[in-house]
């Protein structure tokens, strides 16, 4: 994504950045190519932050790595942000290393899907053996999820019986799938529609199904969550609660309002194909998690144990989830 496109998206958000006045401010810093920007736009577009008596200041930042820490994480840890989202294993890892952070609300099941040609003989997990399977990285959560499910339910490890092929990037993985260099690929959810809606490919298996099975909960389980610093939570607890209320309002609007997605597509997406936009919309609605409770958190712990059994604590970067990582009722 070009710098000009990022600036154009920021300008769209800035149209709704009015004077906060006396309202408490929450500084949201999110990746310019991440799906939360649809939600943040909706909050600002309809003034859901003001409805709940706070000002959400949204800035899109780079997703590049700086000293091994994603820029959004650095923004929070260095005191330049009050709100970001990352996956909960990364939250646990940073907290275990002493970061002053806490996850206070879910975002969604930010995993991917297994994509294969429509005429492929790969129809599910049991068909992976003997095939070349494209992955962004072998330590990618989609591949670890696949291995965990195969080991738990089918008594084999595709890391041993199939051939995982590392692409190194989402863009390269899409090329490998389209050009037949791999028999199937584990692509991230928001990119799956670009492949399935523009070529003879299908999503064989959403990774969200494996998330639910391995977590052993009926609750829609989040992989990514919103987090803030413990100091901000302690000092601005009412503002944090206000954000969760604005978040729910925005989710409800995005789930119900198809016309809003046409507007979002025109202002924030780079897709020209309406079918791709609709598929992204439907994927977002399936991915997002409106709320959570202790049963959800218990499922997140169970899923973590499955992933650690497959990849090991060293690969995940953390041996256990520290206490007070999740605050389900801030």
UniProtKB/TrEMBL annotation:
Region (Disordered): 1-22
Gene3D superfamilies: Periplasmic binding protein-like II
Domain (SsuA/THI5-like): residue spans on this chain: 56-257
Any Pfam family hit: NMT1
Protein name: ABC transporter substrate-binding protein
């Amino acid at each position: 994504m070009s710098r000009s496109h990022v600036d154009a998206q920021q300008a769209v958000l800035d149209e709704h950045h009015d004077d906060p006045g006396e309202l408490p401010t929450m500084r949201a810093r999110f990746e310019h190519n991440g799906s939360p920007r649809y939600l943040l736009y909706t909050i600002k577009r309809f003034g859901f932050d003001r409805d709940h008596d706070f000002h959400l200041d949204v800035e899109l930042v780079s997703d590049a790595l700086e000293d091994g820490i994603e820029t959004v994480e650095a923004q929070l840890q260095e005191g330049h942000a009050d709100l970001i989202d990352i996956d909960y294993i990364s939250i646990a890892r940073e907290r275990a290393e002493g970061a002053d952070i806490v996850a206070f609300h879910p975002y969604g099941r930010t995993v991917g899907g297994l994509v294969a040609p429509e005429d492929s003989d790969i129809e599910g997990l049991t068909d992976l053996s003997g095939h070349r399977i494209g992955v962004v990285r072998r330590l990618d959560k989609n591949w670890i999820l696949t291995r965990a499910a195969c080991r738990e339910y089918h008594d084999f490890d595709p890391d041993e019986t199939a051939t995982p092929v590392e692409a190194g990037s989402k863009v390269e993985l899409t090329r490998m799938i389209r050009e037949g260099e791999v028999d199937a690929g584990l692509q991230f959810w928001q990119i799956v529609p670009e492949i399935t809606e523009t070529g003879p490919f299908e999503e064989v298996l959403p990774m969200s199904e494996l998330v639910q099975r391995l977590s052993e909960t009926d609750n829609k389980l989040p992989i990514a969550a919103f987090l803030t610093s413990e100091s901000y939570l302690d000092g601005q607890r009412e503002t944090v609660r206000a954000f969760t209320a604005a978040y729910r309002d925005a989710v409800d609007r995005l789930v119900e309002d198809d016309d809003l997605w046409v507007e979002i597509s025109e202002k924030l997406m780079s897709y020209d194909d309406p079918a791709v936009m609709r598929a992204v919309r439907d994927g977002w609605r399936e991915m997002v998690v409106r709320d959570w409770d202790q049963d959800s958190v218990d499922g997140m712990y169970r899923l973590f144990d499955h992933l650690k059994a497959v990849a090991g604590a060293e690969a995940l970067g953390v041996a256990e989830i520290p206490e007070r990582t999740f605050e389900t009722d801030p």
